[in-house]
Specification:
84 residues; mainly alpha; chaperone; globular; SdhE_FAD_assembly_factor; DNA polymerase, domain 1
Length: 84
């Protein structure tokens, strides 16, 4: 399932790094998420920019198991689209 406009808009962040990470995940991995994964992604978008980046980069952990399962998929999608 493709993300709706609200989700796309919520991925627009104040930090360029988050814009890049989330934008690439929307393009590469979001469509493969089930409803539980999409719900976890929406909860991740509730995090402040600095916390979101730290969680995705592995510098901080989260107690939300759904988000913890989602983080590797976000990393994989962004690594697949990173310039060589």
């Amino acid at each position: 399932m493709e993300p709706d406009n609200r989700t796309r808009w919520r991925c627009r962040r104040g930090m360029l790094e988050n814009d890049w990470l989330l934008g690439h995940f929307l393009a590469q991995g979001y469509a493969q998420l089930d409803q539980e994964g999409r719900d976890a992604f929406e909860r991740l978008l509730d995090y402040p920019d600095n916390v979101l980046l730290d969680v995705v980069m592995g510098r901080q952990t989260t107690v939300d198991e759904g988000i913890a399962r989602l983080v590797p998929a976000i990393r994989a999608a962004t690594q697949a689209s990173a310039p060589a």
